[in-house]
Amino acid sequence: MALFFNRTPSSTSANPDQEAGVAIVKLAKMARFTIFTALTLLAIWLIGDVLMVLFASALVAVVLNGLARMLRRHLPFIPYQLAVGLVALAILLILAALFWPSGPGIWEQFLTLKAALISQLTDLRLHLSQSSVGKTILDHVPTALGGNDRIGLGSNIGFGGLAGSLTGLLSSAFGLIATLLVILIAAFYFALSPSLYINGFLRLVPPAYRKNARMLLCTAGSTLWAWTAGQALDMLVVGLLSGIGLGLLGVPLAFALGAVAGLCNFIPYIGAFLGAVPALIIALSVSTQEVLFVAILYCVIQFCEGNIFGPLIQRRAVHMPPALAILSQTVCSSILGVPGLVLASPLTAALLAVFGKALPPLADPQTTLVETAEMRPEELAAATAKKGAAKPASKSAARAASESDGADSGKSV
């Protein structure tokens, strides 16, 4: 990266010893960077779950830090640590106010949603088993889901296995709650004294690079704050629209389905499909016409989110190319599972900001390779002609400047 690896001494001398020294320095830095990258990938492979918990804690700490700074802008006399404590207390009170009066009813809706999903999956399995095409699909569902055996018609077919997986996920709620508590407690302490942990990390960096490393950490933190704040508003809008729309359509468990849609929207692009699946399955219990209405509702919501609300909310955040977002989610989920899928987008946003700050700009920013790929033939020809005309003009200007300098020097002599 430009901030870290552009320390090679420039030399235009033809001295072979100097050129050999420069080449050795470059090879040493390349080898060091390769070793660092290999060790990073090995750490991700071995302790990826721990790193995901650490990154999730840092993400929540960034949110607490951003909210505390917002509070101090309005109340500057409050100490920073007190502001963090007040923000955390306010979040807990808001959650308690929202869920305490109707908490049992909300939990009952989610339990009913779980039972309804399992029931609908079982009914779908029985419906598919009545046709030859359906039997073929059922025989191959376990293989598509990663199973090892081909399941016959009379046993627990793939959709039943999927229902069992859902039950297993819900039965491991204690482990999930414990992990969330670890993340929240660590995030609270990170946010209380961020300089302590940042300085501790910078002690691992060579002194010559600490200033640049601190700048990159600040860049990643500000990017995560902007991305998370925008995504939270996006989730709120999608969740409210989904819940209200499903309620107007008469779909059961509209509140729980809206909450699922909003939470799944934390995962860009893929989350929209994940949030729609439970609503479509529940709508199937009403009628096939209801499934069509629910599908249209989710398409309209996602169209408005992608073209109206999303650009307005995320205009100050990092613009992430859709293909890069989907590829990062695929790679992280294949390596780290569900936590990797959830945290892939903020991680990619932070890395994009860091690389954008650390890497040098393009050599020719006027017409990049991507821009020329998107141009029509006549636009490309015009840009090429304009660029070719600019070079002789610059050369003639430089020649005229040198001639004027020579004339001035002659007059002075």
UniProtKB/TrEMBL annotation:
> What segments bear the compositional bias annotation Low complexity?
381-404
Q: Which UniProt keywords apply?
A: Membrane, Transmembrane, Transmembrane helix
A GO cellular-component term linked to this record: membrane
Transmembrane segment boundaries: 35-68, 80-100, 169-192, 213-230, 236-259, 266-286, 292-313, 334-355
Where on the tree of life does the source sit, at the highest rank?
A: Bacteria
- Signal sequence span is none
How this chain sits in the membrane, per its record, is: Multi-pass membrane protein
The record's section on Pfam families has:
AI-2E_transport
The subcellular location is:
Membrane
One GO term under biological process is: transmembrane transport
Region: Disordered, residue numbers: 380-413
**Glycosyltransferase found in the keyword field:** no
For this protein, the record's PANTHER family field holds: TRANSMEMBRANE PROTEIN (PTHR21716), TRANSPORT PROTEIN YDBI-RELATED (PTHR21716:SF62)
Please report which protein family the annotation says this sequence is part of.
Answer: Belongs to the autoinducer-2 exporter (AI-2E) (TC 2.A.86) family.
**What's the protein name?**
AI-2E family transporter
Tell me which species this is from.
Oecophyllibacter saccharovorans
